[in-house]
Amino acid sequence: MVNVGIIGGAGYTAGELLRILIWHPQAHINFVQSTSHRGHPISDVHRDLLDETNLMFSEADFQAIDVLFICSGHGKTKLFLEENVLPANVKIIDLSTDFRPRTNGNGFVYGLPEINKEKIERADKIANPGCFATCIELGLLPLAKENKLKEEVHVNAITGSTGAGQNPTSTSHFSWKNNNVSVYKAFTHQHLAEITETVLQLQPNFNKSINFIPVRGNFSRGIMATIYTDCDWSVEEAIEKYKSYYKNHPFVSITNIVPDVKQVVNTNKCVLYLEKHGSKLMIISVIDNLLKGASGQAVQNMNLLFGMPEILGLGLKPIGF
Amino acid sequence: MVNVGIIGGAGYTAGELLRILIWHPQAHINFVQSTSHRGHPISDVHRDLLDETNLMFSEADFQAIDVLFICSGHGKTKLFLEENVLPANVKIIDLSTDFRPRTNGNGFVYGLPEINKEKIERADKIANPGCFATCIELGLLPLAKENKLKEEVHVNAITGSTGAGQNPTSTSHFSWKNNNVSVYKAFTHQHLAEITETVLQLQPNFNKSINFIPVRGNFSRGIMATIYTDCDWSVEEAIEKYKSYYKNHPFVSITNIVPDVKQVVNTNKCVLYLEKHGSKLMIISVIDNLLKGASGQAVQNMNLLFGMPEILGLGLKPIGF
Amino acid sequence: MVNVGIIGGAGYTAGELLRILIWHPQAHINFVQSTSHRGHPISDVHRDLLDETNLMFSEADFQAIDVLFICSGHGKTKLFLEENVLPANVKIIDLSTDFRPRTNGNGFVYGLPEINKEKIERADKIANPGCFATCIELGLLPLAKENKLKEEVHVNAITGSTGAGQNPTSTSHFSWKNNNVSVYKAFTHQHLAEITETVLQLQPNFNKSINFIPVRGNFSRGIMATIYTDCDWSVEEAIEKYKSYYKNHPFVSITNIVPDVKQVVNTNKCVLYLEKHGSKLMIISVIDNLLKGASGQAVQNMNLLFGMPEILGLGLKPIGF
Amino acid sequence: MVNVGIIGGAGYTAGELLRILIWHPQAHINFVQSTSHRGHPISDVHRDLLDETNLMFSEADFQAIDVLFICSGHGKTKLFLEENVLPANVKIIDLSTDFRPRTNGNGFVYGLPEINKEKIERADKIANPGCFATCIELGLLPLAKENKLKEEVHVNAITGSTGAGQNPTSTSHFSWKNNNVSVYKAFTHQHLAEITETVLQLQPNFNKSINFIPVRGNFSRGIMATIYTDCDWSVEEAIEKYKSYYKNHPFVSITNIVPDVKQVVNTNKCVLYLEKHGSKLMIISVIDNLLKGASGQAVQNMNLLFGMPEILGLGLKPIGF
Fold first, then answer.
1. How many CB pairs under 8 A join B and D?
2. Residue D39: how many CB atoms within 10 A of its CB?
3. What is the CA radius of gyration of chain B?
4. Which residues on C lie below 8 Å from B187 (Cβ)?
5. Which of B29, D129, D246, D281 has its CA 20 to 30 A from that of A136?
6. Of the residues B131, B135, B231, B270, which is catalytic?
7. Which chains pack against C, by 3+ Cβ pairs within 8 A?
8. Of A102, A129, A96, which Cα lies nearest the Cα of A113?
């Protein structure tokens, strides 16, 4: 049994962690820390957990745990680690962006099991990938592995609203967002560096731009990335390479039917689909931004950190509709 | 040409007023006051008005206008009128709740043309009705007129999100509200008093309760109220009475097909539908909460105040889908 | 291990059964019958099951199973049972309306565990309740148990689109239904008889009408029923009675915060909430129409039929957002 | 007054035409033909027109009209014109794809006023552009005009569900489409040829591919196209060129705030927005697919055909929310 603590327990990603860990057969939740809600039942905030747990938000107790999930928000993990000394044996899974950049020898392993599984199994600290980054990287890894990224990569990715967190703002307002879509941070999204680093890990000579246009979708969960680039593989070759790359990765599937976002919502899966048009290889990649794009992947990393089956506790019922 | 001023120009109801008045053949907008946005183009806030107007948010100039629409929010109109002296000839249409209670001789006429048309035509100050109130009252007026409200009245009404205004809150957050419905203020909604007063105007002996359950719908615009009560009319009689009551009221229609909310979205219409089951007469009433439930009705009142055709500028294209 | 067969495997309820049973620790799916899709992978139809199963739609093999789920659609179970002879040991869980009426001694037990748990444990054939019926009955059972239904019961219930099945029609068309709500079958819905029979089982002297207005909601999953009737309990008494009634029923929770539909979506839970206004007790009841309202309850019944823990395989991650 | 006839009156585009023409000050609707609904009120099908018209679906009477709108569906206009002889003076506006290809000297003028205004003013027959085509072409015209399309053009465009028409199918089913997005016809959409022809009209040397990925959005109305290509203009130059190109075109606006789809829903407007990133010029173009993308543009063409102001009857209230 793995003893778990959660920092920043009132946010979206902590809620998703709790929804998974409550039913995880080898996890025991020791504490869920929240400054703002301390002393209140966690089901007052995450109301769908009513009667599934009687945990209260509390202070952290680092002595009691084997692993700490940090869900504090971008920029706050660094601060947290400066202000707190954890016991040496406590492993860390950080869901923020703080330690994703790999250039600075920060001791964190980038927690994308589909590229770093062995490293993760031996690691103590995991920087859990971003949601857009996960979705797009899984679409590109087999190409990078084979040194096939020779030209610009074109990416349009539409995300559910939960990707923007729970803070209410003008662009999270239902009256505005309902039935509406819009572009934001085109060509400049902060996940671009993360994606490029991951590609370079497999294909160090990659030197073209990734033209990435993020879109705010009018749905709650999920990301669909549509990617294309020049590639001399036939579609059959590409499918074979992708299947081969992912054959030991239980959460990535290759489909031969055009996928849709809801096919993966409420699961830890990534579904990939390939088409060829002229010289262009098109890859469609869909994930649930809160699961494979955040908390589900965090649990996948926990399973690997502690030598458990990668899929333990992650056999989640899809939403379907 | 009627010269118009608007107070509180950045909110939802002011935006709707502007969308109507810009194309109104007999209205000229003199100023749109907003404390928070003064000096900025109104199309920076109401972005769909880009290139349809070059008006800027400004201070008020009461000397220049014939009518003032007050869109400041509930409780603020009283304050405004205490702090400002308007020229005697300036008529007022207030969209807040402040002057809707009729018991206190406040000089405001309740601006529901389907019960008070003649009074409105002679009035100087209009208290524009609430959105739920309008929808439900239009469903009850013919019954009250004929003294038929003898038993409890049961009302369930579901509203679009714009009814709650533009302030971002946890219950206006897209991630929560999307695909979600919930009850609020059951049996205690503030429009109940307004509805009861209107019913009593036509049927002073009404002394039963109106059991009103408001529901937050996961759509932006519209209200559907489902109403039933005991009534000894046959459905044919009821339809005849309703048609007769509304024959001189151009915005109320009686349909013989079960209506849906989108049938009236983006119009100033109210569509009513009647069924009889045992002793119960059921009335379904649908309106657009921002138009017949707010700004459209305000323009309808303006038309009546200035002796113009009631429908002028209100021939609006429905959304359809 | 319970060997399972499914008839009518291509529909919504069969899909939900499969999503649950694939991860159920004591269920083995022997066949999924479908006339229209025989020979194709079930993940071609239920695409979110890609790589979670390699089952194909096939013919039925009644010798191989312990329990048969019939998902064929209303009216077809009777026909099926006339045309097929099942081995004596095969238990049946029927998801259609065909055997829900209890007046005719048809050998089926009405599969609402919260009223019939012991009967279900000893049964061979289960008539799985309707979705509206489940949601409304769970709101009424504690009142009926205490003989408290003395006056008319008022019910407004809004349902997700999946309640209407997968056949594409004008009222299931996205362009129409999106952002739209409408009433259907007011006072005449076919579940009324089912609800009344269940109430009479606990309170045989109940002789008032249940005024039931069903509403088509613009969301995919979930039902929210708002119910009220005269009752002399205080709200505290009512809450105590409800908690007491449901204390051995793991899927029913009493909340003290107004619930919303998404709180239970993708779970087998029913959440109940109580308020008192004057003489009226109001009950809000929310369920997922495809789970507690159909396939989740069917699995709950299977668990009871075979002496397994009631919640086995039903620890489902809620959708949350 | 222009006398109007409509063929194929029961579909989405005919409904939109009617919603506009009923309030058009210089249009009189003589007949609305529909084979399937002949003899029924048009408000039985287009229910939001209840009490706004008492027109019935009828047979066509070509002698009575000045202009015929053909809304029959793709492939049927050719058939219609083979089977019917129209009086010489009757002008035609065809909303299908049948006569959009311009290579065959078919006598139809491509009805995009922003490139062909003078031709349209002198024309008798108009091929009304496609919705995706309109949205994307308006984003490209100023570049083509200045001979600036030198490299591949990358286009991702997401459309509302009404673009797929009213026939209910599995991909128009609310339960599937709600909260869902998916790609279709990537790189092969039938509007590509139309777009390329229009670009070539202004820049005959254009010989690169337009990589076009259409996406099904989970909203009813609107298209957002995101376009980018290499261009040596600065963003300031680009904005100036675009403003200059469209200065005499009242329905095209250039915004300096990232636009969203709802900004134009229920209007005939196209809003364009420009950004520059490295060598890439990005253009975002939003329209309402049923208005500027179909029926609104058809009325705009009617206005030009008959020498009326281009915006007559097209001062439509935006939906806003």
1. 96
2. 9
3. 19
4. 275, 277-278, 280, 282
5. D281
6. B131
7. A, B, D
8. A129
> Given CB atoms, is C284 within the 8 Å cutoff of chain B?
yes
Closest residue of chain D to A221, computed from CA coordinates? D179
Give the whole-angstrom CA distance, residue D214 versus residue D205: 26
- DSSP structure class, residue A252: E
Chain D residue numbers with beta carbons less than 8 Å from the beta carbon of A218 are: 217-219
**Domains in chain A with CATH codes:** 2-128+294-305 (3.40.50.720), 131-287 (3.30.360.10)
Per-residue pLDDT of chain B (321 residues; tens, 9 = 90+): 999 999 999 999 999 999 999 999 999 999 999 999 999 999 999 999 999 999 999 999 999 999 999 999 889 999 999 999 999 999 999 999 999 998 667 899 999 999 999 999 999 999 999 999 999 999 999 999 999 999 999 999 999 999 998 998 899 999 999 999 999 999 999 999 999 999 999 999 999 999 999 999 999 999 999 999 999 999 999 999 999 999 999 999 999 999 999 999 999 999 999 999 999 999 999 999 999 999 999 999 999 999 999 999 999 999 999
pLDDT at D104 over 70: no
Task: Please indicate whether residue A231 is annotated as part of the active site.
Answer: no
Give the single-character DSSP code of B97: S
Nearby residues of C207 by Cβ (< 8 Å), 6 or more positions away = none
Contacts of D257 in chain A (CB under 8 A): none
Strand C270-277 relative to strand C252-255, pairing: parallel
Q: Mean pLDDT over residues D81-101, rounded?
A: 95
Q: What is the mean pLDDT of each run of 10 residues along chain A (321 residues)?
A: 97 98 97 96 97 96 97 92 95 96 84 98 97 98 98 98 92 96 96 96 98 98 98 98 98 98 98 98 98 98 98 97 94
Half-sphere exposure of residue A69, counting CA atoms within 13 Å on the CB side? Answer: 38
Inter-chain CB proximity A179 and D275 less than 8 Å? no
pLDDT of residue C37: 96
D295: number of Cβ within 10 Å = 28
Q: Which residue in the set C168, C170, C174 is minimally distant from D178, CB to CB?
A: C174
pLDDT at D103 over 70: no
Question: Where residue C246 falls among pLDDT bands split at 50, 70, 90?
Answer: very high
Q: Touching check for A286 and chain C: CB below 8 Å?
A: no
Looking up tokens 């005697």, which residue turns up?
A: B88
Cβ pair D183, D215 in contact under 8 A: yes
C161 with D175: Cβ contact below 8 A: yes
Asked if B188's CB is within 8 angstroms of C282's CB, the reply is no
pLDDT tier at C104, thresholds 50, 70, 90: low
**Cβ separation of D220 and C173 shorter than 8 Å?**
no
Choose the closest CB to C317 out of A12, A179, A317. Answer: A317
CA distance D197 to chain B (A): 30
Would you give the DSSP letter of residue C108? P
Report the candidate in A63, A75, A72, A52 with the shortest Cα–Cα distance to residue A6: A72
CA distance D186 to D212: 6
Q: Is B105 exposed, middle or buried (0-12, 13-18, 19+ CB in 10 A)?
A: exposed
Residues in chain C: 321
Facing C320 at nearest CB: one of A48, A318, A321: A48
- Say yes or no for a CB contact (<8 Å) between A321 and C20: no
- Alpha carbons C151 and C208: distance in angstroms, whole number: 6
- Determine phi and psi for A304, rounding to 5 degrees: -70, -40
- Strand ranges (E), chain C: 2-7, 27-33, 57-58, 67-70, 91-94, 109-110, 125-127, 153-159, 182-183, 210-216, 223-230, 252-255, 270-277, 280-287
Query: Do B220 and D253 count as a contact with CB atoms less than 8 A apart?
Result: no
